[in-house]
Amino acid sequence: MPVKVVDASLMGAWFFRESRATEAFQLLGDAELHAPYLLAFELTSIAQRKTVEKPEKAQVYAEALRMAFSLPISWDDVDHLAVLRLALEANLTTYDACYLYLALKLGVPLITFDERLARASKIM
After folding, report:
1. What is the pLDDT of residue 1?
2. How far is CA 88 from the centre of its chain?
């Protein structure tokens, strides 16, 4: 089973049924998923933003979040000093650098829809 690091752009698209949901599902395949703890906060933030935009769908978004958290994701710590160095070196936000750091640490692909982060993961 392949191992992949996933970020909020990909997981948000899948669980909140955005336009690239099917593509996200296909990219994940049967992989063993890893993510920094940051992913939980980012998915919760997506659910909040969507609920504010469409309060009538609050239950739908809460259920999507619950389903996302029910996935067997390995939640990993990151070295924040290393993340800072990586963010500066790759010209990324520290949030994005957390995902890249974890992928580099584990030596596995980072699956993302964020173009800037995807480019950085190819050159690092």
Report:
1. 84
2. 20
